Design the sequence.
């Protein structure tokens, strides 16, 4: 693949509540799959008010987020050093590997977040509070 172009509205919407092994129960558009991305995970996540992606960390993957619609409350930082930040439309944030991050939609009309992860590896989220000092600092 040298290049691919797709309109986000042409990417199928997936209801994760129908996928047992894939919490949280949100709707997503798997842009990376539609574009056949090899090195970057790209998703659009859709939230109703109060829905969230819980505080977690990845061991290898850096994640970059951009608020497309709505307002979100972010929980960011290492275990024991978390900060809470409010993010409106147009806001970016990034979490390096091993750094905790999570976000909750706080706007009445819901919201949408564009998420990029690299490298595109199987790197399930882990509880940042459970990481050993060696894992955190290694």
Sequence:
């Amino acid at each position: 693949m040298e290049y691919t172009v797709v309109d986000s509205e042409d990417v199928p919407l997936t209801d994760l509540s129908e996928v047992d092994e894939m919490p949280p129960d949100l709707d997503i558009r798997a842009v990376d799959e539609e574009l056949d991305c090899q090195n970057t995970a790209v998703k659009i996540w859709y939230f109703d008010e109060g829905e969230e992606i819980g505080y977690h960390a990845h061991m290898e993957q850096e994640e970059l987020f951009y608020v497309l619609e709505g307002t979100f409350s972010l929980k960011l930082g290492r275990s024991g050093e978390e900060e809470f930040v409010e993010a409106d439309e147009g806001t970016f944030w990034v979490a390096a590997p091993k750094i905790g991050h999570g976000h909750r939609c706080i706007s009445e009309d819901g919201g949408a977040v564009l998420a990029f992860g690299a490298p595109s590896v199987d790197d399930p989220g882990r509880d940042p509070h459970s990481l050993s000092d060696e894992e955190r600092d290694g």
User: Anything to note?
Assistant: Residues 55 and 108 are 22 Å apart (CA to CA). The mean pLDDT is 92.
